Amino acid sequence: MKKSIKIIIAVIMAACLVSFLPVVGLYISKAPLAYTNADVVNKLQDNKGEYFGFIILGDNHAGFIMDDSAALKIIKSMNRETRFKKLPIDFAAVAGDVAFKGSRWDYIIYNKLRALIRYPVISAMGNHDDAKGSYRLFRKYAGKDEFAFSDRNSYFIITNNINGTVSEEQFAFLEAELVKSLSYKHRFVIMHKPPMSPYQQSWYRPEVVPWSYRFMKLCEKYKVDIVFSGHEHMFREGELGGVKYITSGGGGGVILHPSGDAGGFLHYLVVRVKGDYVDYEIRKISPPVWEYFAYYLWKDLFYFLKGIF
Ligand SMILES: [Fe+2]
Q1: What's the angle, vertex CA 122, arms to CA 19 and CA 158, rounded to 5?
Q2: Neighbours of 255 (CB within 10 A)
Q3: Where are the domains of the chain?
Q4: How far apart are CA 120 and CA 113, in angstroms?
Q5: Rounded to the nearest whole angstrom, what is the distance from the C-alpha of residue 192 to the centroid of ligand 1?
Q6: pLDDT tens, 130-177?
Q7: 3-308 maps to CATH 3.60.21.10
Q8: How far is CA 208 from the centre of its chain?
Q9: Could you tell me what percent of the chain has a pLDDT over 70?
Q10: 4 CA distance to ligand 1 centroid (A)?
Q11: pLDDT at residue 208 in the model
């Protein structure tokens, strides 16, 4: 083998090793104290001013080594958002699937990851978080799965739609909170399963159709700014009835969906509020080097070949 090829292989292997070490550090680190969504809401109460930001991510799926390694890289980037003190970030919110399969190990790792995030973290419930009846673990590590809170000039509603339904009681809760939200400049909803699929460019899907039309009409009526969801492991956005729908499911979990240029990439969102103005930036994060060679390279190659044949 040529010397230059040997050097390239050695460099790649060294880069893989270096990129792998942080997740080992995570697994052997001490377990931090857990906190709940209610603790986060309490912290936000005294925030003042109408210029702030918050972070949205979804589907970190803690507890599986590839997901945790990627989540660590995402967290590293998230923690740099406040450098230069340009924008105060009040909190981060995970749009569900905080756990890989809902096991105790998954929640222990989620708690460790969350403790590394510089901002308090709101956790919405995803279908994986309640797998194997792990609802009690979610309560212990994250608290309530359905609640609302205000932060500065904005109102946030977190709801649980993991079973693919929104019950009459939930619609009543949603509408009551939306009525309260009218005294705020902005309204945001965070729920795991998207009511429409920006990927399929359609809201009419058998999985969500029993509730999505009614839900979206409610959002339209009360002028919700943005509905954030996860579930589909990709980034996609769409608009219907003056409401923005964003699917952000690239918070660490392995991206099975389309190739990078079609939204299948690791990412998080920085949402910025200034008075009556709202916008967001997508932070695309490249996977750790070892994970790129173990998986993402082959995934993108698969979609590339699929495109040809
Ligand atoms: Fe997921």
Answers
A1: 130
A2: 24
A3: 3-308
A4: 12
A5: 9
A6: 987 789 999 999 999 999 999 999 999 999 998 878 999 999 999 999
A7: yes
A8: 20
A9: 96
A10: 42
A11: 64
- Encode pLDDT of 240-297 as tens digits: 899 999 999 999 999 887 776 778 999 999 999 999 999 999 999 999 999 999 999 9
Which residues, by Cβ under 5 Å, contact ligand 1, an ion?
Answer: 59, 97
Q: Measuring CA to CA, how many Å separate 7 from each of 12, 88, 220?
A: 9, 44, 59
Q: Find the 34 Cα to ligand 1 centroid distance in Å.
A: 22
Nearest to 65 by CA among 6, 124, 21: 21
| Centroid of ligand 1 to alpha carbon of 15 (angstroms) | 28
DSSP-derived pairing of the beta strands 226-229 and 243-248: parallel
The reported pTM is 0.94
Over residues 51-73, the pLDDT tens digits come to 999 999 999 999 999 999 999 99
The three-state secondary structure class of 112 is helix
Please report which confidence band the pLDDT of residue 205 belongs to, taking 50, 70 and 90 as the band edges.
low
Question: Residue 111 — φ and ψ, nearest 5°?
Answer: -60, -40
Give the list of residues 6+ apart from residue 234 with CB closer than 8 angstroms, or none: 199, 247, 249, 250, 255, 257, 258, 262, 263, 264, 265
State the distance from the centre of ligand 1 to the C-alpha of 254, rounded, in angstroms. Answer: 9
C-alpha 94 to ligand 1 mean position (Å)? 11
Question: By 3-state DSSP, what share of the chain in percent is helix, strand and coil, each rounded to 5?
Answer: 40, 25, 35
Please report, for residues 3, 181, 200, 227, the alpha-carbon distance to residue 157 in angstroms, rounded to integers and kept in the order given: 59, 9, 25, 9
Q: Which of 125, 78, 124, 132 is nearest to 102 (CA)?
A: 132
Amino acid found at 156: F
- The edge-to-edge listing of strands for the beta sheet with 121-123 is 121-123, 89-94, 51-57, 266-274, 277-285
Counted residue by residue, the chain has a size of 309
Rounded distance from Cα 253 to ligand 1 centre (Å): 7
